[in-house]
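Bug #77: duplicate submission created two jobs. Keeping one. Sequence:
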Amino acid sequence: MKSDATALRRKILLRLMLAPIAALAAFFLLWAVASLLPMAGVIQSVLRAVGMSRDTAYNVYRYLFANNLSLWAAVSFILLFIAAAYVAVRLTSRSFVRMSEGVDRLLDEGDEPIRLPPEFDFLEARLNEAKNELRRRQQVAQQAEMRKNDLVVYLAHDIKTPLTSVIGYLSLLDEAPDMPSPQRARYIGITLEKAYRLEQLIDEFFDITRFNLQTIRLDREPVNLPHMLAQMADEFYPMLAPQGKAARVDCEEGLTVDADPDKLARVLNNILKNAAAYSDPNTVVSISARREGNSVHIAVENQGKTIPKQKLDSIFEKFYRLDTARSSHTGGAGLGLAIAKEIVEAHGGQISVRSEAGTTVFEIELPQDGTSFRG
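Kept job's structure:
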């Protein structure tokens, strides 16, 4: 950028220096023309044409022109310089006006690129890059808003299903106080299950409305990773076991990281929930952690369908759901991985994902001492 500004200054300075050069060239050209023409006779002829006598015209020429050639030369040069400088300044100001118009076109929605004068070629490239980036961000924001609106509609519709079930089974229980105990227990179990589902859907509503308003505040402390990872694996046992899945932890003893334990647990919970939902039956979800220099690497690996490259690029966007065909009963609001990314970056770390040959790996890198290592 500094070199581009230096080049621009040189171009403007050169254009302004051309003014005295052009004036000097024009002056010598006029001087050469004047020396070839009988200027004395021409001037006297003009004076006589306006009514002067021969002697009066001669005296006027001698006293006014012949005796003041240096003065007339200076006046001529000054006038030529002013004219050349005016042209140079006008061209330069016109270039800046076009530059201002180009900046104004940054927010245009059309696809036509911004065009600037040649001396602003470096700025033209940067403005077009900025315009393309603004358009890309606008499209991402619009897509996120559309996904958000769709999810709100889906969730609002799905809330009716468990609510209707809760009301229906409670009505049956209320209307049949002498219902057999096994049937009563079954109805109560179904009602409780639907009530939990209703609570989950309401939590997702809160996540959607809260996402853009939340400010992640960290309460850091040394976190015992082997203990936390083992606890997370135990918590997911009821979700994994019915399909023959299991969670395996591989972490060196005593490994710690300076982090907010509640926020870090939420990150792992969101990633494990994703791994549990998309892994194949009778497979193992591997959770590992290791120390590398001043950072700690945590990886969650599962076996399942390979995630396409184009979806990997969007997987951490808010309101993005990997499988749009999944119902909200299993898919969630599409905020889990976006929130995980926000929390990891608030810790000064990085989160990434790779998927190939049926293996998907989420990787988290955190500074062990809590100091951001990102450039």
